[in-house]
Amino acid sequence: MTMKDIRELETKRIHEQLRSARDKVRELRFGLINREVKHVREVRQLKRDIARLLTVLKERLTVDKTKTPDHKA
């Protein structure tokens, strides 16, 4: 998944993708322990996708914070 693809997603969908990727990593780790997984690189790719998803979420959070005015009296 590329950053362009992720940025086009809605925030709710990004959260769903993040949850799904984390579950998949968990399953793959158990598979590695039991020697059921053949593609070890898939874990690395999923971890990178998780990092990309978190980066976009963090960007959106900081943009939302800068858009809200400060109500200092």
From TrEMBL:
Tell me if Ribonucleoprotein is a UniProt keyword of this record. yes
Q: Which GO terms describe its molecular function?
A: structural constituent of ribosome
Which InterPro entries is this protein grouped with? Ribosomal_uL29, Ribosomal_uL29_sf
Keywords for the protein's UniProt record, in alphabetical order:
Ribonucleoprotein, Ribosomal protein
Concerning Pfam families, the annotation shows: Ribosomal_L29
Q: Which domain of life is it from?
A: Bacteria
**One GO term of the cellular component aspect?**
ribosome
UniProt GO BP:
translation
Indicate yes or no for the key word Ribonucleoprotein.
Answer: yes
Q: Which NCBIfam families match?
A: L29
Instruction: Report the family membership.
Output: Belongs to the universal ribosomal protein uL29 family.
User: Which HAMAP family does the UniProt record give?
Assistant: Ribosomal_uL29
Q: Can you name this protein?
A: Large ribosomal subunit protein uL29
